[in-house]
Design goal:
Number of strands: 10
CATH superfamily of the largest domain: ATPase, nucleotide binding domain
Largest sheet: 5 strands, mixed
Order of helices and strands: EEEHEHEHEEEHHHHEHEH
Mean pLDDT: 96
Structural class: alpha/beta
CATH topology of the largest domain: Nucleotidyltransferase, domain 5
Number of domains: 2
Helix content: 40-55%
Strand content: 15-25%
Strand order of the largest sheet: 3-2-1-4-5
Distance between the termini: 27 Å
Radius of gyration: 20 Å
Oligomer: single chain
Bound molecules: 5'-O-[(R)-(carboxyoxy)(hydroxy)phosphoryl]adenosine, zinc ion
Length: 333
């Protein structure tokens, strides 16, 4: 019955979670609002705020779980990928905590953890399954053969899907992070109002930079004709952009599932909170008779519960790392 303390600090959320025998008992997330003023995450500031938040987040996670620090069996932490300065705070905390209490350390890949978040729920996908992982920095179709045996079969060649959302919102003059605001506005708009191009990329790879340029030129040309164009049409623009991003993602996922003959399909990462994408995947799976796995909202964006559940499975496999471990800004599977 392992008791795992997990730490996540790869970007701008400081999070701590306690997991007992594969059940999540707490998941504390401290968001950093400081970046809003800059229109994006400022790495140096993120690192400093992590330093302020990490101890209170861990204390709160232990309190919420009603677990004493003496009862912890291992410390799991995000090793990468992410911002190096941010990762360093979580990695250093985990190492110090483990050293002081003579506990084993478990290093976790953040992108694998997004996928393993599906094992928090009672209804778990069966191996092998396909996972579309869409976040601010990554867009991947992953063939998940086992907990830590994953193969990326397609990924973005340039911008990530979340980046496309965030950059569109910036063009529209909305504050950072823009993804949730695109979602909110899209609910009131017509997704067929404007047609944006679908890139023709071979295989299961993606490209979003052309779409971003198309949106930029579309807005620029229309604002030149009507200065109030954005204000008057924001809902339709957001709905149309969201629909295009969702169809680009789902068309590739559909083809991958058909060609690999896989029936269990999962969604993961921050963009999996998007209403249009969630609905689109549900409809696709209903139409094809596939089993659909969509994470609860609290497990879509960055959180330590997903690090804890991944840590639980690594603990069972007896896979630990030493005190010489260091963070990795880029970290392959
Ligand atoms: O996984 P995540 O929390 O952090 C990374 O590891 O990158 O993903 C953050 C991304 C951001 O681009 C954010 O705008 C996007 O997820 N996002 C959304 C929504 N919620 C978060 N995009 C569209 N609709 C949403 N509801
Ligand atoms: Zn993430």
């Amino acid at each position: 019955m392992p008791v795992i303390l997990a730490i996540e600090s790869s970007c701008d959320e400081t999070s701590a979670s306690v997991c007992v025998d594969g059940r999540i008992l707490s998941n504390v997330i401290a968001n950093q609002t400081i970046h809003e003023a800059y229109g994006g995450v400022v790495p140096e500031l993120a690192s400093r705020v992590h330093q302020q938040n990490i101890v209170p987040a861990v204390q709160q996670a232990l309190l919420n779980a009603k677990v004493h620090k003496n009862d912890i069996d291992a410390v799991a932490f995000t090793r990468g990928p992410g911002l190096l300065g941010s990762l360093l705070v979580g990695v250093s905390f985990a190492k110090a905590f483990a050293l002081a209490r003579n506990l084993p350390l478990i290093d976790i890949n953040h992108m694998q953890a997004h996928i393993l978040a599906h094992f928090i729920a009672d209804e778990k996908p069966k191996f092998p399954f396909l996972c579309l992982t869409v976040s601010g920095g990554h867009t991947q179709i992953v063939l998940v053969k086992d907990y830590f045996d994953m193969e990326i079969i397609g990924q973005t060649l340039d911008d990530a899907a979340g980046e496309a959302m965030d950059k569109t919102s910036k063009i529209l003059g909305l504050p950072y992070p823009g993804g949730p605001l695109i979602d909110k506005n899209a609910r009131l708009g017509n997704p067929d109002a404007y047609k944006f191009p679908e890139p023709q990329i071979p295989g299961y790879d993606f490209s979003f930079s052309g779409l971003k340029t198309a949106i930029l030129y579309f807005i620029r040309d229309n604002v030149a004709k009507n200065p109030d164009f954005i204000q008057e049409n924001i809902a339709d623009i957001c709905a149309s952009v969201e629909k295009r991003i969702a169809t680009i993602l789902l068309n590739k996922l559909k083809r991958a599932a058909e060609e690999y003959g896989i029936q269990d399909i999962a969604l993961a990462g921050g963009v999996s909170a998007n209403t249009g994408l969630r609905e689109g995947l549900k409809n696709l799976c209903a139409e094809k008779g596939w089993n659909c796995f969509i994470p609860k909202f609290e497990y879509c964006t960055d959180n330590a519960a997903m690090i804890a559940i991944a840590g639980h499975y690594k603990y069972l496999q007896g896979e630990f790392v030493g005190q010489d471990v260091s963070p990795m800004a880029r970290m392959p599977f």
